[in-house]
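Final report, closing paragraph on structural work. Over the funding period we assembled a curated collection of sequence-structure pairs, and we close with a single example.
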Amino acid sequence: MPDVTATKEAIAKRLRSISLPDQPRDVVSSGFVRGVSYCDGVARIMYELPAALMNPPAQEHLHRETLTAIMAVDGLKSVNVEFATQPPPRSTNTLPGVKHVIAVGAGKGGVGKSTVAVLLAAGMQRMGLKVGLLDADVYGPSLPMMTGTGGMQPYADESGRIVPPEFDGIKIMSMGFIVPPDQAVVWRGPMAQKYVKEFLDRGDWGDLDYLIVDLPPGTGDIPLTLAQSIPLSGAVLVCTPQDVALLDAMKALRMYQKLGVEPLGIVENMSYYLCPHCGHRDEIFSHGGAEQAARESGVPFLGGIPLNAAIRVSGDAGLPFENFTKAEPYVITALNQVVKRVIDEVETHTKQRMPLPQLKIV
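Its predicted structure, as stored:
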């Protein structure tokens, strides 16, 4: 009997050979595959297409190509192909002047989500982009410390807009500016949601290429509020190589998919350790799980960030830019690759969401 995991991998591989006419990427890379299941020789492929592509010719094409590609898999008896229309954006209330809003989330705490958010912002700013950081982790705001802005304060201008503090040209808003560092925020969900919306709606973000939102871990009120308040360009999921972290990351990924938010991909933090003395590579927390999970879920793997003392030191000292200038070359390379891949994914999905030109018949 064929191995179930091997069969699923074979199906996923063959799906990557299928594309829609006039579409530059395959159905998996394009995010059109909602799910794949396999049991007792029967495969079920679920496609989710944008409304602009949901039409009988496209469905017939995908149905035919799917059967042709997948029925050659060993042990497969039949294939069921299903279609659904991708949900529309949850909100059209865009932030004036902000081109892209990216959520950085995780299924559980302690995986380095805030670190990745700050590194993304710093890396984008070094590339000449205008960037803002919103610390939506109301209960555990860490961005003021990680950016060296702990002593700063936002203020309201004449129109009542909240002007965020800046560090090295990056605008940042956080509950950590309002509540003393040693004081706990003991609020119910609605109050936390209210403050996040205040930061979004009343924040004077100005003209930004990217607003990076550092979310609290899990799938609770604040991620839901963000997804329903403004149209997101996508979500970056952060995890570590351990199985439990991957399991929770997949829960967060599925939450964003249900909310109609495009998962830009998965970042594996603390991916490996290189000894600074002998160069020995040690995969302390295992390795490669995030890349495999991304492949099985049909989302991009954005790269692995090594476990390195310089990243921890710069975070504690509030000097994130040093990771791109003073860290070891392999660290700088890994960070730049993650930043570039996130930007590439946003640009790709933006092009795919552009409306088709309307043909006016006169």
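The chain has a mean pLDDT of 86. Residues 5 and 313 are 41 Å apart (CA to CA). We thank the funder for supporting this effort.
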